[in-house]
């Protein structure tokens, strides 16, 4: 019995077949370069990898090809008991896993104004998968759900309350599935009661976010109305003075779409240095590239500001956890983010931090009063278990 997890992006679709009980990933795959002549579908199934490169017209053609490859590899799609879909923005409407029907698809589509880069391809993936697997329940799991219950003081922007209410403007937060999963894993790993733990979770990938979690509930997070706010990211600016946007509109004559593209696609690390891959960034730093050095320093500076703010907000801190691609693999980022914080009870062990592993692990010293960990995220497993639980109930 397995759950198919679908994560549909603008030009790619990730999919994974997961056994929710054991947590085993039976098959993983990627459809990428949709709409291009060299479209590619990759499938890994029980240690065997296959790929096909051909023109892929659209998401429908890509997923159809993926299902065909799954069948050719011997995967029995009849064993799929549900399909779990990652949906980025649930607005104020969706804050728990939801069985998908036509009305839900329309509501997710209507929320596209809040996540124009994410919800439309999420809807495409849902529509295609429902056609491919019409006889099993499909479940939407929302990135924003974990942050739905943020305290009002954390969720509210200080703008005209009537305008905010009319246009659903509030802090929604994103990467919630990851923050929820990782904070739970920390409690299990430390063999501590989740209800007693105060945590900071740092999800650092090409997209990056921070959260403060008290007793298993999110009390603050860095992303806001959209995934643009907060930390410096691979291609996104993160926090910026809103006056910059007005200045670019008035003085540079840039359109709203121009500014949107600038802040979402040509800012962050790539805007400062020309690269958004930390391996390339580190190589450029080693080669003496001043722009790469500055990009890294700005990234760390912003990260430390959020860590400090959440330490104060929580009052007492038990654990700081790094996760996602950069958080799990970039030892220098972890060390620099928490450097010189011994006075706050935070002390990194250099040898533990340098160890490369795919397992959850502690990287702080034995004398550190705040436990610092690296915990691999697994959003697909979290989505699969959420879908499985809803369907069974």
What percentage of the residues does DSSP assign to strands (E)?
Answer: 15-25%
Alpha-beta classification: alpha/beta
Major sheet characteristics: 8 strands, mixed
Number of helices: 15
Distance from first to last alpha carbon: 16 Å
Helix content: 25-40%
Task: Explain what the structure shows.
By secondary structure, the chain is of the alpha/beta class. It is built from 15 helices and 14 strands. The protein has an 8-stranded mixed beta sheet, with helices on both faces. A 6-stranded mixed beta sheet has the order 11-10-9-12-14-13, with helices on both faces. Helix 1 packs across helix 3. The longest helix is centred in the last third of the chain and has 25 residues. The chain is globular.
């Amino acid at each position: 019995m397995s759950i198919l997890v679908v994560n549909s992006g603008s030009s790619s679709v990730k999919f994974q077949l997961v056994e929710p009980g054991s947590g085993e990933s039976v098959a993983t795959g990627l459809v990428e370069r949709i709409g291009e002549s060299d479209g590619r579908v990759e499938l890994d199934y029980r240690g065997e990898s296959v790929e096909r490169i051909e023109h892929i017209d659209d998401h429908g053609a890509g997923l159809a090809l993926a299902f065909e490859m799954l069948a050719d590899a011997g995967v029995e799609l009849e064993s799929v008991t549900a399909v779990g879909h990652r949906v980025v923005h649930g607005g104020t409407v969706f804050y728990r896993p939801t069985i998908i029907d036509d009305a839900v698809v329309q509501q997710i589509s209507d929320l596209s104004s809040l996540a124009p880069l994410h919800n439309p391809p999420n809807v495409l993936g849902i529509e295609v998968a429902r056609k491919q697997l019409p006889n099993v329940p499909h479940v939407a799991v929302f990135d924003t759900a974990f942050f739905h219950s943020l305290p009002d003081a954390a969720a509210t922007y200080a703008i005209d309350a009537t305008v905010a209410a009319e246009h659903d403007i509030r802090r929604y937060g994103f990467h919630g599935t990851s923050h929820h999963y990782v904070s739970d894993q920390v409690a299990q790993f430390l063999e501590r009661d989740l209800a007693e733990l105060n945590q900071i979770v740092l999800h650092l990938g090409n997209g990056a976010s921070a959260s403060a979690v008290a007793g298993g509930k999110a009390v603050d997070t860095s992303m806001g109305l959209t995934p643009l706010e907060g930390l410096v990211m691979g291609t996104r600016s993160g926090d910026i003075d809103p006056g910059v946007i007005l200045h670019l509109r008035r003085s540079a004559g840039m359109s709203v779409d121009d500014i949107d593209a600038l802040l979402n696609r040509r800012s962050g690390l790539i805007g400062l240095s020309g690269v958004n891959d930390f391996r390339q960034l580190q190589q450029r730093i080693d080669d003496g590239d001043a722009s790469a050095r500055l990009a890294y320093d700005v990234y760390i500076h912003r990260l430390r500001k959020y860590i400090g703010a959440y330490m104060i907000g929580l009052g007492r801190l038990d654990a700081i956890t790094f996760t996602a691609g950069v958080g799990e693999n970039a030892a220098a980022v972890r060390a620099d983010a928490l450097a010189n914080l011994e006075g706050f009870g935070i002390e990194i062990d250099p040898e533990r931090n340098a160890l490369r592993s795919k397992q959850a692990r502690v990287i702080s010293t034995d004398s550190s009063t705040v436990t610092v960990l690296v915990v691999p995220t697994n959003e697909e497993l979290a989505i699969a278990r959420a879908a499985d639980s809803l369907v069974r109930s």
